[in-house]
TrEMBL record:
Has 3 domains, the large (RuvB-L) and small ATPase (RuvB-S) domains and the C-terminal head (RuvB-H) domain. The head domain binds DNA, while the ATPase domains jointly bind ATP, ADP or are empty depending on the state of the subunit in the translocation cycle. During a single DNA translocation step the structure of each domain remains the same, but their relative positions change. Residues 259-355 are annotated as: Head domain (RuvB-H). It comes from the Bacteria. InterPro entries: AAA+_ATPase, AAA_lid_4, DNA_helicase_Holl-junc_RuvB, P-loop_NTPase, RuvB-like_N, RuvB_wg_C, WH-like_DNA-bd_sf, WH_DNA-bd_sf. Homohexamer. Forms an RuvA(8)-RuvB(12)-Holliday junction (HJ) complex. HJ DNA is sandwiched between 2 RuvA tetramers; dsDNA enters through RuvA and exits via RuvB. An RuvB hexamer assembles on each DNA strand where it exits the tetramer. Each RuvB hexamer is contacted by two RuvA subunits (via domain III) on 2 adjacent RuvB subunits; this complex drives branch migration. In the full resolvosome a probable DNA-RuvA(4)-RuvB(12)-RuvC(2) complex forms which resolves the HJ. This is Holliday junction branch migration complex subunit RuvB. Residues 186-256 are annotated as: Small ATPAse domain (RuvB-S).
């Protein structure tokens, strides 16, 4: 399977996305669609800080890729009328890297630290102190003669983003005054986002087409915007440029993104699970081998969405297809299919243990 196909429903940004995302990002809080709780709470945090003439509390945003964390960081700076400094966990390999950023911040600036869970451990300690006391301790000299010279830094607001909040050490998490948990979007919200993007891209998106694309976007604005661009490409080549329902369906069929947003790998995994393993249970690595993929790829790319969509359940004995998986793939389960095994599922159809 080529990279390109895989990337169509991947929540991670590719080069193409990065080039266009700047243009599609909402610039103000009021244009940010969905995530109402986060929006309202954040608005309060920002407004009260402004009223008190102080820098707002540090903000942590956690959630899967493509849901708007970077967008919100930019919005926070814009709402505060502050400038934004951007860095990321992987760029901070030593505490000196962080000291260099912190010591050059201007008063009131917003520092966006993306993928904060990937920052080097020694830098974390320095960040605690900076967040709490607006101070960095600069080490001068080496070995037993080394001394720490405290250096005041300008009050700033840290905005951290992470896809893995669980990996953050609790002392770091505790120093954020506000934690925003980003959730997957409802199809209606994705429709709104698509209509907005279509306006910015200058394409004529029919309402039924917007609904169709929204339903296949895996709850993720980045994927919605990407599918919109592919449908637009198709409409330019095969139609009159209008994005009608028929055009959207034909385009998404060509790109092999199905009604539920499953792509070719997702479907291959489901198909193997259903046909070769009679719905499981089967181990992940066996399943991966049968579709000619690395276990890692199946586990990190296909499985999370299949589980979230309710097509696959993880059980102590392996992966099991749910009744929805059989019906989605248009197949009839054998009478002895695993979801009938009482020890694996309770009456509500939920797996008895989530390994
Ligand atoms: N709530 C939203 N409203 C409108 N567009 C959004 C929203 N959230 C994300 N997007 C769009 O999705 C794309 C990805 O968002 P981004 O902030 O880069 O996600 P993350 O940083 O969480 O991976 C951006 O181009 C942005 O335009
Ligand atoms: Mg981001």
């Amino acid at each position: 399977m080529s990279e390109h196909e895989r990337e169509l429903v991947s929540p991670d940004a590719d080069g193409d996305d990065r080039a266009i995302e700047g243009a599609l990002r909402p610039k103000r809080l009021e244009d940010f669609v969905g995530q109402r709780r986060v929006r309202e709470q954040l608005s309060l945090v920002l407004r009260s800080a402004q009223r008190r003439g102080r820098t707002p509390d540090h903000v942590l945003m956690s959630g899967p890729p493509g849901l708007g964390k970077t967008t919100l960081a930019m919005i926070i700076a814009a709402e505060l009328g502050a400038s934004l400094r951007i860095t990321s966990g992987p760029a901070i390999e030593r505490s000196g890297d962080l000291a260099a950023v912190l010591s050059t911040l201007h008063e009131g600036e917003v520092l966006f630290l993306d993928e904060i869970h990937r920052m080097a451990r020694p830098a974390e300690e320095m960040l605690y102190v900076a967040m709490e006391d607006f101070r960095v301790d600069v080490m001068v000299g080496k070995g037993p003669g080394a001394t720490a010279i405290p250096l005041d830094i300008a009050p700033f607001t840290l905005v951290g983003a992470t896809t893995r909040a669980g990996l953050l050490p609790p002392p770091l998490r505790d120093r954020f005054g506000f934690v925003a948990h980003m959730d997957f979007y409802h199809p209606e919200e994705l429709e709104t986002i698509l209509n907005r993007s279509a306006g910015l891209l200058g394409v004529d998106l029919h309402p039924e087409a917007a609904r169709e694309v929204a339903g296949r976007s895996r709850g993720t604005p980045r994927i919605a915007n990407r599918l919109l661009r592919r449908v637009r490409d198709y409409a330019e080549v095969h139609g009159n440029g209008e994005l009608s329902l028929e055009v959207a369906q034909a385009a998404l069929q060509l790109y092999e993104v199905d009604q539920q947003g499953l792509d070719r790998l997702d479907r291959a995994v489901l198909y193997a699970l259903l046909r070769r393993f009679r719905g499981g249970p089967v181990g992940l690595s066996t399943l991966a081998v049968s579709v000619g993929e690395e276990s890692e790829t199946v586990e990190s790319v296909a499985e999370p969405f299949l589980v979230r969509s309710g097509f696959i359940a993880r059980t102590p004995r392996g992966r099991v297809a749910t009744p929805e998986a059989w019906s989605h793939m248009g197949l009839t389960p054998p009478p002895d299919a695993a979801f009938g095994v009482a020890s694996l599922f309770d009456e509500a159809g939920q797996p008895t243990t989530d390994q």
